[in-house]
Amino acid sequence: PAAVKEAGLAAVRAARGPAHALAGLIALTALSGAFVAGMGAGYAFNTFPLMEGRLVPDGYWAIEPAWRNPFENVPAVQFDHRVLAVSTVCATAAFWAYARALPLPRPARLATHGLLLVTCAQASLGVWTLLAAVPVELGTAHQAGALTLFSAALLLLHTLRKVPL
Questions:
Q1: CA quadruple 125, 127, 133, 139: dihedral sign
Q2: What is the SS3 assignment for 56?
Q3: Closest by Cα among 80, 107, 102, 100 to 25
């Protein structure tokens, strides 16, 4: 039992850093979504994965000085949110695969599974919202999904907190 307890503690320590980084990425993605919603950028480029047939849309660097584009330019704001969202899905899937190989306590394993589920649901909802040209119901659900996803990340962090097993 002591060896099992020590292995579980080591697994929690190993997962904690990547889980914090993942939660940060989720928060950054949600923040970028706030820019999309605030600028009405979701009404432009209603195709996925390409934007008007291009991976990087025309006009990405249209504003001078260039540092303003990620905050004030519709093509850049929407492209950045797409990149962050896809990165979040990939990072969550990678964390899930990594965590499956660790002897994590049951609450942390369940939180990891839940995080992957919510991430996939949120990304799917985001694409659906975009393709449907952002009806209010889907846009609202996608914003609520961002809060749910961040809450799932916080739950995972809570299960990995520094307490004895």
A1: positive
A2: coil
A3: 80
Long-range CB contacts (within 8 A, 24+) of 93-98 = 93/119, 95/15, 95/18, 95/19, 95/22, 98/15, 98/18
- pLDDT per position in the chain (165 positions), as tens? 566 678 888 999 999 999 999 999 999 999 999 999 999 999 999 999 999 999 999 999 999 999 999 999 999 999 999 999 999 999 999 999 999 999 999 999 999 999 999 999 999 999 999 999 999 999 999 999 999 999 999 999 999 997 554
The distance from CA 37 to its chain's CA centroid, rounded to whole angstroms, is 16
Structure tokens at 114: 């839940």
Residue 147 DSSP class: H
**Dist. CA 157–CA 140, nearest whole Å:** 26
Residue 78: HSE in the Cβ half-sphere, 13 Å Cα cutoff: 28
DSSP 51: B
